[in-house]
Design a protein that fits this description.
The protein contains 4 helices and 9 strands. It is α+β, with helices and mostly antiparallel strands. This is Histone acetyltransferase.
């Protein structure tokens, strides 16, 4: 990416200094899900602070950003596919966050249904949007698919908005998986699982 265009979005790795902003995104995501009738996907604590920090330290967390914080009318979308660029804009806005993992995800081993295949894959977890721009989830998913051909992701059974976005982005519903974490008893234990494999 050459110069910083305020309306252009890009992807960068999250830093420890981004933790407060990321926690605010997750707070908003929990509120939006609760208002949409999906209060139990993330309960009232997930993602947990130690999980957020560990993801960043291990290089798993990415941010979708632009440089339009000082614009009178900040653009709500970008016509271009975001590219990976580690620069930080002077007037940066965080549009979205997600974590990306390589290798076998233990929660995906047992599925009520079947995955598209058993080929090596990447997994997306903890995706959330700030509400500052349209198509944030679509942009993050599109970037992941531009980097990796085989991607799996899960969401809540009542997260109809995310299910719609996944299907619009070419992901296939594969079945249901179980998750369990004693740290938040309000969090539901079932997820619906999706996969996209571009051959």
């Amino acid at each position: 990416m050459q110069g910083l265009n305020p309306g252009q979005r890009w992807i960068r790795h999250a830093k420890l200094t981004d933790i407060a902003a990321i926690e605010a995104l997750f707070d908003r995501a929990r509120q939006v899900m609760a208002e949409a009738g999906n209060p139990r996907q993330w309960g009232d604590k997930y993602p947990f602070p130690e999980m957020i920090e560990a993801d960043i330290r291990q290089g798993h967390t990415y941010l979708l950003v632009d440089d339009a914080a000082q614009e009178a009318q900040a653009p709500s979308t970008s016509p271009e596919l975001p590219q990976l660029d580690e620069r930080q804009g002077e007037h940066e806005r965080i549009i979205g966050v997600f974590s990306l993992f390589d290798g076998i995800d233990p929660t995906y081993v047992d599925i009520d249904g079947s995955w598209l295949d058993d080929d090596p894959y990447m997994t997306i977890h903890r995706m959330a949007a700030s509400g500052l721009g349209k198509r944030a989830a679509a942009d993050m998913l599109a970037w992941c698919m531009s980097q990796y051909r085989n991607v799996r992701v899960d969401t809540g059974p009542k997260n109809y908005a995310m299910q719609h976005i996944l299907e619009a982005q070419g992901f296939t519903f594969c079945g249901s998986i179980g998750v369990h974490d004693d740290r938040d008893p309000l969090m539901e234990s079932t997820r619906v699982a999706y996969q996209r494999h571009d051959r």
